[in-house]
Write a structure and sequence with these properties.
With 137 residues, this protein is mostly beta strands. It has one domain (27-132): Immunoglobulin-like (Sandwich), CATH 2.60.40. The chain contains one helix and seven strands; from the N terminus they run H-E-E-E-E-E-E-E. The chain has one helix at 2-12; strands at 33-44, 49-59, 67-76, 82-90, 95-101, 114-122, 127-132. It has a seven-stranded antiparallel beta sheet, with no helix packed on it. It is elongated and about 100 Å long. The N and C termini lie far apart (98 Å).
């Protein structure tokens, strides 16, 4: 009987409960990765100037279309200063490419002290970075 009284009393007391449902777990994102990276500068007869080119292949475990941005930052290897930066554009599949006429940059094609740092971002903000020494004239 004592148990019945406690049960009835508990039912009459105001109260509530809730079940937290945070939904499915967030997706696990893996960073993009470089499979090829190269850069350089060479003379161009049409422009009568040097042309800098940046060429990378970037893939992602979620597929190549998950890669949304790729940049090339050029640094002076002797003093570490940033020299110039360029956006690369998707070509076909995993390839990203960009070319710039020398007169439109701060770079000197005859200087052999540059290093190029390529950075790739995927749609979730994961990043991969690779550094190469460019071919110069």
């Amino acid at each position: 009987m004592n148990r019945l009284i406690r049960l009835v009393a508990a039912m009459l007391l105001p109260g509530c409960y809730f079940v937290a449902d945070d939904g499915p777990p967030p997706p696990v994102n893996a960073a993009p990765f470089f499979t090829y990276a190269d850069a350089g500068c060479e003379p161009d007869d049409y422009y009568r100037d040097f042309v800098w080119w940046f060429d990378v292949d970037v893939d992602d475990p979620a597929g190549a279309l998950d890669v949304v941005e790729v940049y090339a930052d050029v640094y002076d290897s002797w003093d570490g200063r940033w020299a110039d930066g360029f956006e690369l554009y998707p070509e076909q599949g995993v390839t990203w490419y960009s070319a710039w006429v020398g007169g439109s940059t701060w770079l000197d094609c005859t200087y052999d002290g540059y290093v190029i740092e390529f950075t790739a971002f995927d749609s979730f903000g994961a990043v991969d970075v690779v550094t190469v020494v460019p071919y110069t004239w």
